[in-house]
Amino acid sequence: MALNYIWIGFFVLTFVFALSETIFNGNFDVWSQIMSSSFDSAKTAFELSLGLTGVLSLWMGIMKIGEKGGVIPFFGKMVSPLFSRLFPGIPKGHPAMGSIFMNISANMLGLDNAATPLGLKAMQNMQDLNTKKDTATDAMLMFLVLNASGLVLIPIGIMTYRAACGAANPTDVFVPILIATFVATLVGIIGLCLKQRIKIFDRVIVSWLLGIAAVVVGIVWFFSTLTPEQMQRYSSFIANIILFGVIILFIGAGLKNKINVYENFIEGAKDGFKTAVMIIPYLVAILVAIGMFRASGAMGMITGGIAEFVHWLGFDAQWVEALPTALMKPLSGTGSRGMMVDVINQFGVDSFVARIAGCIQGSTDTTFYILAVYFGSVGIKHTRYAVPFALMADIVGSITGICVAYFFFG
Predict the structure, then answer these.
(1) Which helix (H) or strand (E) holds 90?
(2) Phi, psi of 382 (to 5 degrees)
(3) Taking the CA of residue 169 as centre, how many other CA atoms within 13 Å lie in the half-sphere pointing to its CB?
(4) How deeply is 24 buried, as exposed, middle or buried, from its count of CB atoms within 10 A (0-12, 13-18, 19+)?
(5) Rounded to whole angstroms, how far apart are CA atoms 361 and 384?
(6) Listed residue (219, 217, 209, 221) closest to 185, CA to CA
(7) Which of 22, 139, 359, 379 could serve as 89's disulfide partner, Cβ 3.0–4.6 Å?
(8) Residue 274 burial by Cβ neighbours in a 10 Å radius (0-12, 13-18, 19+)
(9) What is the Cα–Cα distance from 209 to 21, expressed in whole angstroms?
């Protein structure tokens, strides 16, 4: 129901802002801009789904080999002590455990293309256990919030964008992003544990969280010893070699267990194709609403109002220039990247505002895209409290990104 109200809200706000533009500013072109945006967004949604088809077919095929070859169940057993507590509705040893682990690992490495199909596979595994097929389970909600908070150990994308824009040190946002995304994920986990009455101070959960914190500190220390060029080269190399290693591992396990690797790949790839087709309507629905909202000028009016309010309070308002990136982040990954690039073009890639935008961009993932794709792939209509908790992680991540940017660069 939450997505239903939010979707309707986008159209209502779009109409209100467009009407005010026409009445108060005499802007009659806004209506044609809105309609053009609706067609462009629908086309983008289809092209995005079409682009996902190949990636989904590839990774769903690889996942099928890993499942039949015993690798996914092995990963499930490896993380079972933690996941059996965070996902109490999933039986120990169930394939969903391994799929969740693979998805989260891909996200942590900044491998978005691989993370999405792995996440869809995890949703399908969890849907097999779901007794109410149209309603999200507690496990699904925990999984969605973990994805929305988007813990990324190696933010390859942000560093690549900054390098392409000519930054003197493209990797200078690495540590701030790592801190922001870790805080967002931690808050998301704690919030859902409290909501679902999971014992957050359980010895296993605390040990794993401290272990992850230690890994974060270790990565920060290691990369701080590298030059910017080495940091970018090593981060890309490590992520890609791990990804390729997973493919070889899965195929090797399949051969060892004497399964027909090729036929299992084809079977999984077919599921990937079906999933890509299934999510098209959900992507069209959410992207069209967001595109029309942007075209109405609502985003500019909101950020302008916030900037005036901050100035009136007497606080530093430099961060407000990066606010469109934060507001767009939950709605559209492409849109938020566009906002970040717009800030870079306007103020310069090495400006304080551009660094804030980079920290915000890397702090969390795209909430409504994740909700639309993941829930849509298994036909979930009742998302329960997924939206508020995912947005909570988004807000915390953005605020933390702004704060750490001030600490490191202000």
Answers:
(1) none
(2) -100, 105
(3) 13
(4) exposed
(5) 27
(6) 209
(7) 139
(8) middle
(9) 49
Can you read off the two tokens belonging to residue 225? 């010893």
Q: What share of the chain is helix, strand, coil (3-state, %, to 5)?
A: 80, 0, 20
Confidence at residue 43, expressed as pLDDT on a 0 to 100 scale: 85
> Which tokens go with 201?
């101070």
C-beta neighbour count of 196 within 10 angstroms:
16
Overall pTM > 0.85: no
Contact (CB, 8 A) for 189 and 202? no
With contact defined as beta carbons under 8 Å apart, do 357 and 328 qualify? Answer: no
* Amino acid, res. 112: D
For residue 121, give the nearest of 263, 240, 277, 268 by alpha carbon.
Answer: 268
Contact assessment for residue 172 and residue 356, using Cβ atoms and an 8 Å cutoff: no
Which percentage of the chain shows pLDDT scores above 70?
A: 92
Ranges under pLDDT 70 in the chain: 1-3, 48, 52, 76, 109-114, 154, 156-157, 160, 228, 231-232, 235-236, 239, 243, 332, 334-335, 338, 410
Strand partners, 135: 382
Q: In this structure, what token pair is assigned to residue 90?
A: 């999933």
Could you tell me the two tokens for 265?
């790949």
Residue 61 Cα to chain centre, angstroms: 22
Retrieve residue 371's tokens.
Answer: 């909700």
Distance CA 294, CA 300 (A): 8
Q: How far apart, in whole angstroms, are the C-alpha atoms of residue 149 and residue 181?
A: 7
Are the CB atoms for 53 and 329 separated by under 8 Å?
no
The structure tokens listed for 206 are 């605390």
